[in-house]
């Protein structure tokens, strides 16, 4: 996989925080600068529909992340390409993942093994909006975690609980080295300003958690706060239409800058 493992999981236990929007548009922005694969690990398959709008369920059920994990399809059979990005879609059959994983725990460790066979420089994984076997499985494969947050649903308690989950996965063998908080749908309201201030206090908050409960938080890397993605009707509309962001728009510029930051952090060289 080029330089090595660059598996980035986009996750937050809360729904409605622009995980899928962030994953999809970041993947498209990165796809112009590096070889990228994006994985939809959410049975709602919103990311899959973002890339393949209008396709019937049969299109997604034939070959997807679940068939791949069950060795029913190969990577070559499963990967599709759109907008310069390799895509591994999800399917409604993922609803059975928890049942299968409870009987065969090995399937939760298989994701990283399979993704390591890709020649992608960066792999992004979109996860469900609640604590789930899918999220845990993705975290076990992750090298980096991006946590999108929006002003309206900001909760330090949710972040604390998710840090604890990350700590548990690292204690079980995950190799998560970096965590980023990504402010999304950010405006100029007083609420946005207040939450942004709190975000920058998160490293200190985690430090105090480690002092109080070292066994629960000691392994969690100190988070870095990324530059915010602005609130934009254009981003929302393009996401719903399954289209890339238009050139010379604030949204396009924001995701391009985010892609440059990620590439720099990973020590890669942009192909443009």
Automatic annotation (TrEMBL):
Residues 6-171 form the AAA domain. InterPro entries: AAA_dom (IPR025669), DNA_Partitioning_ATPase (IPR050678), P-loop_NTPase (IPR027417). It holds the Pfam family AAA_31. Coiled coil: none annotated. This is CobQ/CobB/MinD/ParA nucleotide binding domain protein. It comes from Leptospira santarosai str. ZUN179.
